[in-house]
Write a structure and sequence with these properties.
Elements (H helix, E strand, L loop, with lengths): L5 E10 L2 E11 L4 E5 L6 H8 L7 E6 L2 E2 L8 H6 L1 E4 L11 H11 L5 H14 L15 H12 L6 E5 L7 H16 L3 E5 L3 H6 L3 E6 L2 E5 L5
Parallel strand pairs: 3-8, 3-9, 6-7, 7-8
Antiparallel strand pairs: 1-2, 1-4, 4-5, 9-10
Helix pairs in contact: 4-5, 5-6
């Protein structure tokens, strides 16, 4: 059996020394699509932040894309994040640069130098999300759904092993949310592992998948129909 792309064992997660989630045990294999659900304040975001090392793992064992989270040094966090694609609720596009320049900024920040290689990669990821013809528009010229597609493309730039999507449809209307989900499901069908925190239960019903719930300081798997 291959090594799971992510596991947490007996992990306790804290926010400002306050316990948020206790005794977390999760194992996720390559190519899975996982939902993380729970009420506001239940620990979804804290769990996601632990996975991309925005919160340190101080109690328990954890590994993601072969990085030991408990032993991770601050200087190695950028290298970890190159192997993880992160998609946020609020897009986080740089407003003073067009889409192509947003992408170039990320590639340069992660060590790319060859202009032709960068341009080819940008065209490749924009093609995957159906946004190839929007490369020279400014973020404010795009709808929310279009901006989120760009954010997903940006997350794909360094060919990550896993994508962490934290409420990626939270600011979108229902129809646009479905369009963004179709993009994520297509990426998953091509072999990417996706972990998606969401409170949109309509999407869970339309696109059922393994679901973990944060509730009362615990994380546990739920059967879809009882969500």
């Amino acid at each position: 059996m291959s090594q799971p792309v992510l596991f947490l064992r007996n992990v306790n997660i804290y926010q400002d020394k306050n316990p948020v989630l206790m005794n977390v045990n999760i194992e996720i294999n390559h190519g899975e699509f996982i939902y993380i659900i729970g009420k506001t304040g239940s620990g979804k975001s804290s769990l996601m932040k632990t996975l991309y090392a925005d919160l340190p793992l101080t109690e328990g064992q954890g590994s993601i894309v072969d990085y030991d989270l408990a032993a991770l040094k601050e200087k190695n966090i950028p290298y970890l994040r190159r192997k993880i694609g992160i998609v946020f609720q609020d897009f986080k596009l740089l407003p003073d640069r067009n889409i192509n320049e947003n992408m170039v900024f990320v590639l340069r920040a992660t060590g790319w130098t060859d202009k032709n290689e960068m341009q080819a990669k940008i065209e490749e990821v924009l093609e995957k999300v159906g946004m190839k013809h929007f490369a020279y528009k400014m973020p404010h010229q795009l709808s929310g759904g279009e901006q989120q597609r760009i954010a997903i493309a940006r997350a794909l730039l360094n060919d990550p092993e896993i994508i962490l999507a934290d409420e990626p449809t939270g600011n979108l209307d229902p129809q646009t949310s479905v369009e963004v989900m179709e993009v994520l499901r297509k990426i998953n069908a091509n072999g990417k592992t996706i972990i998606m925190a969401t409170h949109d239960y309509a999407l869970l019903m339309k696109y059922p998948a393994k679901t973990l719930k944060c509730d009362s300081g615990s994380v546990f798997e739920v059967v879809q129909r009882t969500v």
